[in-house]
Amino acid sequence: MLYLAEVQIQKGFMGNKAMVKLLACQRSEQNWSSVSEELIELAEPGTLKDGALVLVEVANKKIQRPPQDAARPLIGILQKFSTLQGKFEGQEEEIEQWKQSLTFQAQELNRREMELVAREDELAQLEDEAEKLEEKRQEIESLSEEAERQREEFERKSQELEGAWAHLRGEQQRLEEQQGELSSASILDEEKADQIRQSLQSLSEAVSPTESLREAVGQMTTAVSEQQQVLDQHWQQLEQSKGQTSQQQGEVEQLKQTIEGRWQEWNEAQTVLEKAQVDLKTQQSILQIKQELLSPMQTHLSQTEQLCQQLQQLSEASGKPAVTVDRQTLENMPIDELQKRVEDLEQDLKRASGFVKDQEEELGYQMEAIDELKQKIEQASEYDRLSLETELSSEQESYDFLNESLVGSRRNLAEREFVYKTHVSILRRRQGYPVEAGGEALLDFSPALEAAESQREQQSEQMQRMEAEISQIQSAIGQAEELVNSQMADQETKRNEIKQLEETLAQQEQQWAQARSQVEIYEQMLQPLQDQLAQYREKVEQLQEGITGIQSTNDRQLQAISQLQQTVTELTQ
């Protein structure tokens, strides 16, 4: 089974021993799981270093084949993980979009359900009103049927009246004939007069009464008027609904214009945001290029510093530090003054030598303390190891700081010693004493060291300028990122506001369409009722005209009967 492990080089009296500490186990191609730390001895460490990460195959707690460097496989795993993470983020965004879509659909369904319920209530109200209108219509139809029945009765009686009139005209003609025959006489016999009176009485009784018909027509007129008042109220409500519908249409159009303006502003701001994002990516690319350039500059500077250190070490090893002495001035200086300077340099050299010696002793103590802490850490428990490692880190930092300061002190001491020996050599030669051989033939590394130091300073300045530029670019990128994030947040807020306005627009459009359909249905229901009521009113008016005609005929009939009765009375006298 394949494991990810860490190489540990353990030092001992018998030599170094290489171990691997198992960290994680591969369960499948894309699945790794951590394991309990376990150390397995590595037979052939090869060129592996302490702390290196390797891939090993382990079976029965033994390594089956040589370890492989885990750097490249780990990079591949991290790249795959980054790709999968990107896919997961995309899927999460898609899932979130689906959630928002489903939420919006659920809200839309709930809103439509509420609208359907409200529409059902309105339809139920309209049905109730339609039922009331139907009841009025049935009442009008019943009155119309009654009027029709009375009209038929009136026509029947009119026909009877026409028969009576025909009989009356016959009797009148016969009476006239009799009057002609009895023109010489001025009276009728009693028998014929009774017959004529009976005929006139029958005609008088045959006159159709119109009071009941007038009463029925009056009821019909009242019912039609009441129905017209109800319809007028509904027509008024219809006009109000039309006005409200027109107002809703105006609000919908105004909201559409507002949304179009908002979208236009949003698109303009989005264009500015995209340009800012492009500028940000450009600055990030420039930053990446400069950071890539900074890395070789740091490498060159590090190499130059190493060269300076090596030259310094060579200079120190040669016995001639990188310091210059004005030998001509010493040659021209009085011997007493030169001797006094030599004595001062000797005292200064003793003090510096004592100081360096004290530092070296302190450095030795620090090294002993570090060794003791390392031994304690190897023997300590897991709980105590953490505090000991912290103490070791602190001691190591103190040791490194003291060692670095000691390097400068040693260099300073070597320079002082070189200056002192040079002064002594010139003084002894001027006093006539023999000079030690080799004191004047030391190699001079100062020109190379000065050139290396100059190059190091130039590289350091270039790197500092590059770091300053990188810092400025990073600061500009930070500000640009804040601005872009702020603009993105504003754009998202504005976009959500526009979406809410669009949802409001959809609701208002649906309400306007619903109100318009209700107005159309209302008008479609009212217009047939109004037409039918107009027909009823026309029939009632026709009945009224018929009743008026009948009443006029009755009046003329009664007047004629009265005249005939008077004539008969005169003839009988």
From TrEMBL:
Annotated coiled-coil segments of the chain: 335-376, 449-553
Biased composition (Polar residues): 199-211
Domain of life: Bacteria
The keyword ATP-binding is annotated on this UniProt entry: no
Residue ranges crossing the lipid bilayer per the database entry: none
NCBIfam families registered for this protein in UniProt: taxis_HmpF
Protein name as annotated: Pilus motility taxis protein HmpF
Source organism (scientific name): Roseofilum halophilum BLCC-M91
